[in-house]
Amino acid sequence: xxxxxxxxxxxxxxxxxxxxxxxxxxxxxxxxxxxxxxxxxxxxxxxxxxxxxxxxxxxxxxxxxxxxxxxxxxxxxxxxxxxxxxxxxxxxxxxxxxxxxxxxxxxxxxxxxxxxxxxxxxxxxxxxxxxxxxxxxxxxxxxxxxxxxxxxxxxxxxxxxxxxxxxxxxxxxxxxxxxxxxxxxxxxxxxxxxxxxxxxxxxxxxxxxxxxxxxxxxxxxxxxxxxxxxxxxxxxxxxxxxxxxxxxxxxxxxxxxxxxxxxxxxxxxxxxxxxxxxxxxxxxxxxxxxxxxxxxxxxxxxxxxxxxxxxxxxxxxxxxxxxxxxxxxxxxxxxxxxxxxxxxxxxxxxxxxxxxxxxxxxxxxxxxxxxxxxxxxxxxx
Length: 381
Description:
Strand order of the largest sheet: 3-2-1-4-5-6-7
Number of helices: 14
Radius of gyration: 21 Å
Number of strands: 13
Order of helices and strands: EHEEHEHEHHEHEHEHEHEHEHEEHHH
Strand content: 15-25%
Mean pLDDT: 92
Shape: globular
């Protein structure tokens, strides 16, 4: 199979899933071409069958904003023609699925493409969450998002919840969107009893609560801080914030207002594994996680997850077993649950063990199998 994988290169879940799936498929002998405006943060190109292609972004003075969708379409046309790509797998609908459709139409109209796919390149798209629940529903994107989704030969989503949301809001027929969960690299994300980072984060032995995200409004980081303030009033603790984004300054200001800024560690973008291994709890009070890859990575490190009963997160976190899920929008509830769990050492230890066991159900091999089989079926149809 010769495929192009189109994704965002950032720390967000869609880019991580796309990158790691590309590497697994390349390891299985498929020829994989990853395309983005920058090299994805987790992409290791020093392996057979894997290539990275950077999108050249135009800077013509007439354009107020660079026309990335057009530049991406042009790059896809080049890669299909030069490398015999049979299938374009877009991760995140906007603008990737749109650009993939545009590229296919250009190739079809001029009878161009590769000998490997004389009937035209196939299109697959994995929906990742906010492209369906937020961005795709905006008036300026909705019609084009719906059009591009309906032109795909294969649609997948990481949770049953997101597949249902796509049916509800974009008119796909039930069963059209195939639910394939995200996976976690269990050798990379694993418990570490030594956890060297712990001595740096909490030198006085405080409890360590962690949040990892792109700090966009949907992550509700203000509720992370509010919940932490509840915990901090009951016990010594630190809050570790990993990642970067527009809501991070708001989180820092709120921590100052609540008098807990000295107990907040802002670490920016960096590999999360050592931080998660040093954590006691992971906080994820998102508006509606489509899956919760960050939560799964925390669980793989043996860290219970606290969040809301919203979106696809209940498909990952088993309430009362591998974490705690409270009614949506209640930071006091979240903070009280966190403090109570940390105070109950036997229960917390049992949840740490259960979290790792649950994460092992999301091992890469069987989930990559599902993707591989779905993509091969798409090509053969």
